[in-house]
Amino acid sequence: MNTTAKIATACAALLAAAVLNFMAITLNKEAPPESKPTPVVELPPSTKAPTEAPTLPLYDYVPTEMGMTEKAKQLLNINKDYVGWIKIENTDVDYPFVKDPGEIYEDNSYYGNEYYGINDFYLHHDFNKREYEFAGTLFMDYCNNFDAVEDVQSENIVIYGHNMANNTMFGSLRRYRQDYDFYKDAAFVELSNRYRDYDYVICCCFITGGNYYSDFLYWQMEELDNEKDFNYYVDTMRSKQLFDTGVDVKYGDKLLTLSTCYASEDNSRFVVVARRLRDGEIAGDLDSIEKTEEYIKAQEEKKKQEEKKKETDNSEDSH
Fold this sequence. Notes:
The protein is an alpha+beta fold. The protein is built from five helices and eight strands, in the order H-H-E-E-E-E-H-E-E-H-E-E-H. It has helices spanning about 5-30, 70-75, 175-180, 225-240, 295-319, and strands at about 80-90, 95-100, 140, 155-160, 190, 195-210, 255-265, 270-275. It has an eight-stranded mixed beta barrel with strand order 1-2-3-4-7-8-6-5. The longest helix has 28 residues, at about 5-30.
């Protein structure tokens, strides 16, 4: 390295050192004085924000990023088993529903220190849990999940209710089997959980056995997460349907099954199944609901027959 280069290098080094020294002094002057850390207030466990996606709490109020509705918060203060609300236009169905707590042992003071089997407690207890009530409360099967995260919700929500003669609980559902045209006036179901509202359209009504040895144990088919099981459920209910609604049902749809008594002599059940609306479908508008190809063809054929009959009648009248 020549002398000129050495001098240039030395000057550059001195200049860099001066710049660094100046920056250090400047930054030290601009740095804020050290302050005491702000004390952290520990929130009660029930109001802490979640740090991960909600798991599957059975009953307790666990906040989620989606947030509970005010109605849910109020009703949970009355009954921690509260899950949601169900309403069907033009029927008397407009109630909260709970989740069955499963097997209850005698040391559980919340349920009165008495033993109850699975799907048993709310058969004859009101929403407040304190009093015997023959009509009971609408309740979701103890195996079901209808929480905030849709991906973990049961593919088939099963809700039970008594067939009361005064039309309370699920008593007014009998109109679907007494008058098939009634379906057109009450085809949609509003179903809410603690977090949001959903709309369903009724796709099938049928009568089946309610014993453990019956040919269709629909109440044991909540998790239809594979196509074979889902199609079996849909095909079986279709084979028993009282009338064809025409509503298309495919693997991936979320189902709602409403179960009530039909006849005590043979322990049979009347069952109403609905599916959640798809994108583009409108609650209250049956024309917006996707139909099966078989139903569309049957309706076209029916229309042709009606037009043919009308032409024949007009021809006879002209003579």
